[in-house]
Amino acid sequence: MKGKLNMFMTADGNMRKPHNLRIGNKEFEVVSEFKNLGNIIENNNRNDRCIKERIQTGNKAYYANLQMLKNKIISRRSKLQIHKTLIRPVVTYGAETWTLTAAEENALRRFERKVLRKIYGPVVDKGERGIRYNN
To answer: Residue 116 belongs to what domain range?
Structure first.
């Protein structure tokens, strides 16, 4: 019977051809990657595929809630609460195990800014659009 629990992963990059492990009457298959709790874990300790997948999943959550974020009746405070409870947790699920590169960190920040731009909207001063600053 081949199932998810009959696999193991090695992080040894010097192994030329990994072979299956046999303990008693159980045989464990060698894998180079597996999915655990929604995160892709690879033997080369890279997170780029996992983070890209998380951002894609966050985009799905973002577009599922886009009508609420565009709604002019809902306050900004409520929209921020929607973002913090429905969108951000989808993206950051499993983030405790990530080791981020600068590019991955920037990709996560770009996604966050996209959502916040939709919530806060443009700055309109005397009929002209401007740039929103942090002050």
So the answer is: 46-121
